[in-house]
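Pinned message: reference record for DUF8001 domain-containing protein
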Amino acid sequence: MVDPLRIDAGDLGADAILEAIEDGRRVVVTTTTLGDEHEITLRYDGSVYYCDTPTRLHRHESAREMRTCIRNMGYGASSTADGT
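Predicted structure (tokens):
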């Protein structure tokens, strides 16, 4: 198994994150919410995309849905930072 890619929220753009998970890597995103650090695991099983948070497992049926989630939740770099 390939080691997960560990990043802080905003380090990579949504497209780079999607590329990594579609290549079979798990991406572990460290976020800070209300002063507490949390790890979110983003992954893809070949048909469904997953965002595994400390409180919930989100499922997305398409890359478009996953990209929207990554952007809306702040896991990826803002559109001005990554050019997307």
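Pinned by admin. Summary line: The chain is about 30% helix and 35% strand.
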